[in-house]
């Protein structure tokens, strides 16, 4: 079989079962693709020896008739998942040299099913960013490049994961989504990105950014692949106090293709000022696709959605300032060189000053400020109240019989690297305008590639589902995928 690294997970699984290829051959195809992808800067810690060993074990498992859905499938892992004895830095200088002696639940679940680890993938430092430019490894480049030769962002913070899947470096990738970090990169790269309900996938062993918002999920080439991968990643985990005690359904079995009678909400508040005519038209066209497949399209109101972005950028930095306080140079990771007379306070200050990048410092300072005496009620408590109102808006919509909500994933296609004004971080934060609402509400969401824009860059649309109903959400997403017929791939230039 040619271009094994370009197979979908479902295609590769079937080929392995039929004996048309082996896990070793699949893995070698991906390793070869990774070796030639330095210009993308997607993989940052390669594990070829481990990958070959895992592939041989997967082939033995398949031969013995003990294969699981992910057995023999080569995947990449975002750098904030702790993998035993593999560098896990969350793209930060402050965790330089950190090799955890334990395995995150998500990666442990994947390896337990027989998936093959190719290496760790680039990201924004600690997940803080929308372009994978805030990384100690340097930015990831989107494999989609136009004739203008300009390097564009692969999105963030899971830009390395999305770029690797889009470029055929791996068949799927484990990523995380705090404010859109799975869905936005997926939209920018023409891939599928699924953010499950908060608590569906364990956060144990995932380097934390904002604990009440972080959630792991897959980036893949198709909706079916996302369903297969989520089934392997999700589990009930007693080590994670936020893990929901709910059985994990067969998500692939939920892909019936029948969405007749489903009611899809179109929130009027998402038609924001400055939304491009192209994305607005694509939004309407996607609604027509769902209508033609038998769904009912309903206008709805989410009145507090307009406050989601400011609320998110109070709550997330507040939680980050608490989570990142542990990085002080005492126990593990980087420690600054100290001068004569320096004490423990100076060690903290110097280590954090040289270990954290500018965006992380900015958010830690914002978070510390909004949690400080005199400002806690004015900012953090108020943001928490807004969060509760946003969740109530969604609850009312779903109580009114809405099955899912359709909206754009991003306000634009992928933008050139370095084009956002570094003097005004709010310009970058606006990329999350359509994605942060469901993180605040703890809901599942999926981005599906629908079309290319006038320039030839991918555009994605987002479906927001009912809590714990990822199967129904995936089925709706597959209806969009089938109707859109998006099969474009980036031309290889790297």
TrEMBL record:
GO cellular component, one term: glutamyl-tRNA(Gln) amidotransferase complex
Protein's UniProt keywords contain ATP-binding: yes
SUPFAM superfamilies: Amidase signature (AS) enzymes (SSF75304)
Reaction catalysis annotation: L-glutamyl-tRNA(Gln) + L-glutamine + ATP + H2O = L-glutaminyl-tRNA(Gln) + L-glutamate + ADP + phosphate + H(+)
Assigned EC number: 6.3.5.7
Residue ranges constituting the Amidase domain according to the UniProt record: 25-474
Entry's Gene Ontology BP terms: translation
Active site: 78, 157, 181
Molecular function as annotated in GO: ATP binding; glutaminyl-tRNA synthase (glutamine-hydrolyzing) activity; transferase activity
Keywords: ATP-binding, Ligase, Nucleotide-binding, Protein biosynthesis
Function statement: Allows the formation of correctly charged Gln-tRNA(Gln) through the transamidation of misacylated Glu-tRNA(Gln) in organisms which lack glutaminyl-tRNA synthetase. The reaction takes place in the presence of glutamine and ATP through an activated gamma-phospho-Glu-tRNA(Gln).
Family: Belongs to the amidase family. GatA subfamily.
Subunit-level organization: Heterotrimer of A, B and C subunits.
NCBIfam families in alphabetical order: gatA
Protein name (record): Glutamyl-tRNA(Gln) amidotransferase subunit A
Organism: Paracoccus yeei
Underlying gene: gatA
């Amino acid at each position: 079989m040619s271009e094994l690294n370009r197979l979908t997970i479902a295609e590769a699984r079937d080929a392995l079962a039929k004996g048309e290829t082996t896990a070793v051959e699949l893995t070698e195809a991906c390793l070869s693709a990774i070796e030639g992808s330095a210009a993308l800067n997607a993989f940052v810690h390669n594990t070829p020896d481990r990958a070959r060993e895992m592939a041989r074990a997967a082939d033995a498992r398949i031969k013995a008739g003990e294969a699981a859905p992910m057995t023999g499938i080569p995947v990449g892992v975002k750098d904030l998942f702790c993998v035993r004895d593999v560098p896990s830095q969350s793209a930060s200088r402050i965790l330089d040299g950190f090799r955890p002696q334990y395995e995150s639940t998500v990666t442990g679940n994947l390896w337990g099913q027989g998936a093959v680890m190719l290496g760790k993938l680039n990201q924004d430092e600690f997940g803080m960013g929308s372009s994978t430019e805030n990384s100690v490894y340097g930015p990831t480049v989107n494999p989609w490049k136009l004739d203008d030769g300009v390097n564009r962002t692969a999105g963030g913070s899971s830009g390395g994961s999305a770029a690797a899947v889009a470029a055929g470096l791996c068949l799927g990738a484990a990523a995380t989504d705090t404010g859109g970090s799975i869905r936005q990169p997926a939209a920018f790269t023409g891939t599928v990105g699924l953010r499950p309900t908060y608590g569906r996938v364990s956060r144990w062993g995932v380097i934390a950014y904002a604990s009440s918002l972080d959630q792991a999920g897959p980036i893949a080439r198709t909706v079916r692949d996302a369903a297969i991968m989520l089934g392997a990643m999700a589990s009930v985990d007693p080590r994670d106090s936020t893990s929901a005690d709910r059985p994990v359904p067969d998500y692939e079995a939920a892909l019936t293709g029948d969405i007749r009678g489903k009611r899809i909400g179109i929130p009027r508040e998402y038609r924001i000022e400055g939304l491009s005519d192209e994305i607005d038209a694509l939004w309407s066209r996607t609604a027509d696709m769902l209508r033609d497949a038998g769904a009912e399209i309903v206008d709805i109101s989410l009145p507090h959605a307009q406050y989601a972005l400011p609320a998110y950028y109070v709550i997330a930095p507040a939680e980050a300032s608490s989570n990142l306080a542990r990085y002080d140079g005492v126990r593990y990771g980087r420690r600054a060189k100290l001068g004569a007379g320096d004490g423990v306070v100076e060690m903290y200050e110097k280590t954090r000053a040289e270990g954290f990048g500018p965006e992380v410092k900015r958010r830690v300072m914002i978070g510390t400020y909004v949690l400080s005496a005199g400002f806690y009620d004015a900012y953090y408590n108020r943001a928490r109240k807004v969060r509760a109102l946003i969740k109530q808006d969604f609850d009312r919509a779903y109580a009114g019989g809405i099955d899912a909500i359709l909206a754009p994933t991003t306000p634009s296609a992928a933008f050139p690297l370095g084009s956002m004004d570094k003097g005004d971080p709010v310009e970058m934060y606006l990329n999350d305008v359509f994605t942060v609402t469901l993180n605040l509400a703890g809901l599942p969401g999926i981005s599906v590639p629908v079309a290319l824009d006038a320039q030839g860059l991918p555009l994605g649309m987002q479906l927001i589902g009912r809590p714990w109903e990822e199967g129904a959400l995936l089925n709706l997403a597959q209806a969009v995928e089938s109707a859109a017929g998006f099969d474009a791939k980036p031309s290889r230039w790297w």
